Amino acid sequence: MEHLEIERKFLVKSDGYKQKATSQTRIVQGFLNTDPDRTVRVRIKGDKGFLTVKGASNESGTTRFEWETEISSSEATNLIDLCEAGILEKMRFEVPFGNHLFEVDEFLGENKGLVLAEIELKHEEERFEKPEWLGEEVTGQVQYYNSQLSLKPFNKW
C-alpha cells in the first residue's frame, strides 16, 4: 500500500538528546477528527502548515496509512480554529543517531513532562541503534498517540 508510515515510539529517560539535536522546532497541532481509524490532523510546524490523514494502526502498532500535504500557515491557523478541543503544543528536536533520525517531542501545556521519541523505518523488522537516552518502548500504546493526548492529557493520567 502506498503512503505507509512505519515507526516506533519510545519514552525518553534523559535530556542527552539535546546536545545531539540538529534542529529544534515549535509545533502546534489540533485534530479535526480523533477516531483512531481515520485521524485528521492540522499542524503548524515553524512557519509551515500541514494537513495529515492517518488510518488505523496494524496489530503491532508500527504501521499505518499516512497521507500529508503542505498548506499555508494561515490555512492551518484557520483550520486549527475548527479543531476538537485539546490543541497540542510541543518542541521537536531532530536527532541523528547511527543511520537514522529520531524525532524527540517535548510536550508543553497539559502534556508537560512527557517526552517521546519516534523513529521512522523502511520496514517493521529494520534494526537500528538505540541511544542511551532512549527509554521504554510504547509503540502501539494508544494513550501515547498525539490524538489521544489531545483528549486525555498526560497530566490527567
UniProtKB/TrEMBL annotation:
It comes from the Bacteria. SMART domains: CYTH. Residues 3-151 form the CYTH domain. This is CYTH domain-containing protein. It comes from Flagellimonas profundi.
